[in-house]
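Appendix B. Chain record.
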Amino acid sequence: MSIKLEGGFKIFLSTWTGRAGLALLIILTGVSLYTITVLPIAEISSQWNDPQHWVDFPKSAPPVWVNIFSEKKLLETVTLTASGVQFSGNSKSIDMLYDYRGDSYPAYITLSVEKLRYTGTPPVLVLTIVRPDGYSVEAARLVVPPPRPGESPPIQRFEQAPERVLISSSDEFARNLAQLYGDRFDMPVSPYRIIQEGLQRYLMGSPRGGSTIPLNGVYRFTLTAIQGTGETRIERVRILIGGEAYGMMGTDVIGRDLATGLLLGFPISLFIGVITSVIVTGIGATLGLVSGYMGGKIDNTIQRLADFMNNIPLLPILIFLVFSFGAKLWIIIFAFVAFGWPGLTIVTRSIVLQLRETQFIESARAVGASRLRILARHIFPHIAPFIIAQIIFFTPSFILLEAALSFLGLGDPSLPTWGQILELGFRSAAVYLGYWWWILPPGILIIITSLTFVMISLGLEPVVNPRVRGRTRA
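Structure tokens predicted for this chain:
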């Protein structure tokens, strides 16, 4: 058996489709393993459909690498993050640096404080920004709520959701900028005008001719905790400087990072395709073996059931199941399995009908071999290559079917899939608005994943059918 397996693998690798399909499968599997082991899938899945989590991110922003092909450079969105911040003793401040290089101003600037704990008196968090020219301005002041009656230290704040401050729309920040321009640059400007034109324009600009031009350089964001007694710990501090481009794959209309959604789509698509095809092939092949060899009433019953299931339309049943039990992943897999086995059962039965009349099967019967032994030791090994090929052949069908159902809005909304990304893109008119980064990547990944298994199926064809070996060698 090992020699046959080794020989079959050599035949498979002798075809260019087999080699290409195997290489693509290794890449898809590697990306899926990376996603499962590195990314917090449960946390990302819960955040994916939470618009509040993505409120700070730019909406419908293209990926940052478009600047390589564009004369007009888009300002990249930058996130400054500090984790496990401890304010105690003489350490009462942290610094985060932003190297600003651009011809346009940021769209907004936000400060987020998540999971703050303190002892002693309630702290006051003050954010000060030092410009490249050395001038500093207070941008935000966050007063942490005092303890409630009966609450004992450490006092916890901002546990459920981070406290968010939109710095670029603060009236106090506008007054501080107006004072800076009046005192240092001899350019009187009202806070109202600063708010109307954008605080970030005056923060990251220098005066010229009654207006401002971008002031490139390193900006230092200093967060200071003013506290009489005690100490303060913050799980995470984030300053987001919103630009016109974001990440490797851009964002959608909600502001979600499409690169994250596309990465999560790898293991989900492979899981649905492989698991469903294995279950469907197992059920279909088993029933086909039993039906073809046993004959009689058993054969009749299995074939009539296969004909009945084969003629029931899948889409109306799936819509009914989704509305009855909800759009869950196990509902989709159950529907695929329930309506996917009949075709394979019918084909397997026809193969077994031919095999059971051969001389070696008759010889096995003559020496008293049981039906189970004949099926397992004599018939199954002859159809095993066909069954393995069917597993691989079914996989792209179920991947495409899941993507189509998600595109129709029938997929599991708790899991980001390529089909769901496409569905929201078309629903949000991404095609008409020119948001190509929202439509092309998931579509291309669906095609590549499906093509991978199609190429593997073509590579297995000379293994299953020796008559085509000469024509398929590389």
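Further analysis of this model is presented in Appendix C.
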